[in-house]
Specification:
With 68 residues, this protein is α+β, with helices and mostly antiparallel strands. Helices cover 60% and strands 18% of the residues. A hairpin with a 2-residue loop joins strand 1 and strand 2.
Amino acid sequence: MNPVKVFSGITLISLGLTLYLISKAESVSFGGVVLIGPIPVVFGNSPDIMALAVIAIAAIIAISAMRW
């Protein structure tokens, strides 16, 4: 496990949560993907965000497969 990558990930998550908490927007959309083995679990609060998360994870998986 690379400590720099772990620190970067924790920092990005903390920054995102901080920006989410201090935002003054009335409605904030969120979504994400959790990969459990080969099965992606998609979540979000709107269908549009969930579709965007599926497209993003498909692109990430495709790029990872090309670099394999």
